[in-house]
Amino acid sequence: MGLASQEAINQFKALMDQVDEPLNRTFKNVHQGYIVETLERFLKAREGNVTKAHKMLVDSLHWRLQNGIDDILAKPIIPSNFYRGVRDSQLIGLSGYTREGLPVFAIGAGLSTFDKASIHYYVQSHIQINEYRDREILPGATKKNGRYIGKCVKVLDMSGLKLSALNQIKLLTTISTIDDLNYPEKTITYYIVNVPYIFSACWKVVKPLLQERTKLKVRVLQGGGRDELLKIMDYSSLPHFCRRDGSGSGSRTGSGSGSGSGLDYLSDNCYSLDHPFHQELYNYMKQQSGIHEPIEPAKQGSIHVDVPLGDNEGEELHRTLESELKKLRTRKSLSESLEKVKISD
């Protein structure tokens, strides 16, 4: 049970039994019937300290109430062609499942541009994917596998990562803070692939600042990580950007053997709105809201979600990352200037 001892869980549960009805109602949407497992997540996020874990969870429940998170899946971003722009610039998708039944989320960290909408739309979309994962994807995986599945695997593609990423620090910090404080311990492993120099340079600086439990979750793989990832998932569940790596049939983009998930998520691009995962998610949100595709464009409007204050560790990490990116940008500018001088000579 790790940091979450039975005594700590019992104390935590006794405290949560005392919360009032509005908080208790939103707590049900968080635990989905798995109270102990949820308490364990928050305890682990606070190093087993019951008082701190209780405060973290209660603060999160207040955040959910104040920002209408329980109803966020009934508020799709419309019209759909505008939402397509969000999806094309905020690259995330479900590529399949591991052999143990854990969902595999692919994230285009390097190629996401976040330039098709305001920050509020991207935050709204991110939370909606989190909520759909927790309310539909994970419970579905739990039912199919006959055992509790409450975490996922994430594969982050760093292809295309540039120094201009500095411009996205505010948005990425916002999303990271929301996840850290309200969706803790939902990812069992982060696989980092297609790593360019800029990431390697930043990682050397940031890694020592991370808590040990966080460092243990991160695995930086060589190249596209294909061979390593095939140890835990079938070819059909590999994110599309991993399939070129390694020997053999790396060029395949069509159908392959099933992953045992019951869903065929094979696609050249699991980020696309046309991918089954995103189609299912968007149709689910439209069904929840009762909206149908409007004949005339509907008035666009994002949901403004308050961002909770991050902890000191998170703030230090973000400051360090921003500082390192600025240094790299300065070095690049200097190098380019020297190159121009050489050319002119």
From TrEMBL:
Residues 79-239 form the CRAL-TRIO domain. This is CRAL-TRIO domain-containing protein. SUPFAM superfamilies: CRAL/TRIO domain, CRAL/TRIO N-terminal domain. It comes from Tagetes erecta (African marigold).
